[in-house]
Design a protein that fits this description.
With 387 residues, the protein is α/β, with parallel strands linked by helices. It folds into two domains: 219 residues, Rossmann fold; 155 residues, Glycogen Phosphorylase B (Rossmann fold), CATH 3.40.50. Helices cover 44% and strands 17% of the residues. A six-stranded parallel β-sheet has the order 2-1-3-4-7-8, with helices on both faces. α2 packs parallel to α7 and α12 crosses α15.
Length: 387
C-alpha cells in the first residue's frame, strides 16, 4: 500500500513524535511505501509565521491543499494522521477525507474535548470542558496559561466540531480507558462516529534482552519522564525524603522545568541521570527493582510502565487513569493514591519485601504490545476502511 502519515511536531520532542517514527518504521519494514507530510510548530516561532499562527491553527488552507495534492500525486491508498496542533489544523483531516481515501486518526490525548489535552487543571484531574463546554477552558486559561492561546485552540475545535470534520474518520484510542472516556465525552458532545472508535495500543519497542530475575536486580528504582508537575516528581521526592535511610536508591532520568528545583532539594539517595538515549534508559529499567510512575493526570498512553513491564520490571503506579490501569496489583506492581507521598512511601516499602516473577511480567507485556500484532491491527484498520 501507499500510505500517507501526517504529523505536526511540538516544539519540544515528546511521546507522539516517538510513536509517529515507530509506526513509520514498522510499516516500512513490512514493505509499504510510506509518504510523510510533517511540519513542526518551531516553524512558527518567529516573525510573520508566528503572527499568522492563530489563524493557521484554526484553518491552515495551505497545509490542507498540500495534503490533498500529495494524496492525488502519490496515489495514496490510506492516510494516518497523528497530531495537527497547532500549525496543521484539523483542516488537513477534512482535506484528506475530501479525496475519498480512507482516513485514520490516532488520538494521543483528549484534545478533542479539552484544549490542554490532558484533562488537568491546578494539579488535579478536570473534566469541566467535556461536560460543560469549551468556555470553561477560557475561564481558566487552560492552554499554556494564556487567554489568547486558549481561545485559539478552543476556536479550532469548536469550529471543526460544527463542521463534522471527524465524521467518517476511524479514530484510534490508545487504551480501553481512553476509549471509555472518549465515548463518555462524545455522548455529551457528538464529535466523531462512536462506532468508528477502536483501541490500538502504541507499539512498544525495547531491546530483546534477557530478563533479569527479581533476585538479581539492583536495589534501586527508576523515575523516567519529563521533570514537571503532572508527572508527580514532587510526590516522588517527598516520598524518598519520608523514607530516609531505608529508601532504595532512586535514579531520575529526564529533564524539564522542575530539574533545578529537584536537584537542589533531593536527598543523597537520589541520582539524576539527565536525558538518556533509549538503549541506556532501557538498561537501567531492566536492572531496577521497579519503575515509579506517579502521574497526576490520566495520561493518554502509559509508555514508561509499558516499557518497564516489557523488560519484566514491576511498576509503582499512581492509581489514576492509564497509569493505574496498566498495573495488576501484586502481579506486575503496586498502585498508590495519586499525589500522596505517604502512600507512595508505603508502596516502596511493601514492594521491597515482595518477590515478582519478572519473566512472566515480560511475557504478558510483550504479547500486549507486540509490534507484529500492532502492524496487523494497523493493516486491518486501513483495509477495513477500503471496503
Amino acid at each position: 500500500m501507499n500510505i500517507l502519515l501526517v504529523h505536526c511536531h511540538y516544539r519540544l520532542p515528546g511521546g507522539e513524535d516517538a510513536v509517529f517514527a515507530a509506526e513509520r518504521a514498522l510499516l516500512e519494514r513490512h514493505g509499504h511505501r510510506v509518504v510523510v507530510y510533517e511540519r513542526s510548530n518551531e516553524e512558527a516561532a518567529h516573525g510573520m509565521a508566528k503572527a499568522l499562527l492563530p489563524l493557521r491553527a484554526v484553518w491552515n488552507g495551505a497545509a490542507a491543499r498540500e495534503v490533498a495534492d500529495l494524496i492525488r500525486r502519490e496515489h495514496i491508498e490510506a492516510v494516518h494522521i497523528h497530531n495537527t496542533l497547532l500549525l496543521l489544523s484539523p483542516a488537513v483531516v477534512r482535506a484528506a477525507k475530501g479525496t475519498g481515501v480512507p482516513v485514520v486518526q490516532s488520538l494521543h490525548n483528549f484534545r478533542l474535548f479539552c484544549p490542554n489535552g490532558i484533562l488537568l487543571r491546578d494539579g488535579t484531574v478536570c473534566e469541566d470542558c467535556p461536560h460543560h463546554g469549551l468556555s470553561c477552558a477560557l475561564r481558566h486559561r487552560c492552554y499554556r496559561g494564556s487567554l489568547v492561546q486558549t481561545a485559539v485552540v478552543a476556536a479550532a475545535y469548536a469550529l471543526h466540531r460544527r463542521l463534522g470534520t471527524w465524521r467518517g474518520v476511524t479514530m484510534v484510542a490508545l487504551t480501553e480507558f481512553d476509549r471509555r472516556k472518549l465515548l463518555e465525552f462524545n455522548h455529551e458532545c457528538p464529535t466523531f462516529d462512536a462506532d468508528r472508535l477502536v483501541v490500538k495500543p502504541n507499539p512498544v519497542h525495547v531491546p530483546p534482552v534477557e530478563v533479569l530475575p527479581w533476585a538479581q536486580r539492583k536495589p534501586q528504582m527508576l523515575f523516567a519522564g519529563r521533570l514537571e508537575e503532572l508527572k508527580g516528581l514532587r510526590v516522588v521526592l517527598e516520598a524518598w525524603q519520608q523514607l530516609g535511610e531505608v529508601a532504595p536508591d532512586l535514579l531520575v532520568a529526564g529533564e524539564g522545568p522542575l530539574g533545578d528545583w529537584a536537584r537542589a532539594t533531593a536527598g543523597p539517595k537520589v541520582r539524576f541521570l539527565g536525558q538518556l538515549p533509549p538503549d541506556e534508559l532501557h538498561r537501567h529499567m531492566a536492572e531496577s527493582r521497579a519503575v515509579v510512575a506517579a502521574s497526576l493526570c490520566y495520561e493518554s498512553f502509559a509508555l514508561v510502565p509499558a516499557e518497564a513491564h516489557t523488560l519484566g520490571t514491576p511498576v509503582l503506579a499512581s492509581d489514576l487513569g492509564n497509569v493505574g490501569a496498566s498495573v495488576r496489583q501484586g502481579i506486575d506492581g503496586l498502585r498508590f493514591a495519586p499525589g500522596n507521598a505517604k502512600a507512595l512511601a508505603g508502596a516502596v516499602q511493601a514492594l521491597s519485601a515482595m518477590q515478582f516473577d519478572c519473566a512472566a511480567i515480560a511475557a504478558a507485556a510483550r504479547r500486549t504490545y507486540d509490534e507484529e500484532e500492532n502492524y496487523r491491527t494497523l493493516l486491518r484498520l486501513y483495509k477495513k476502511e477500503r471496503t
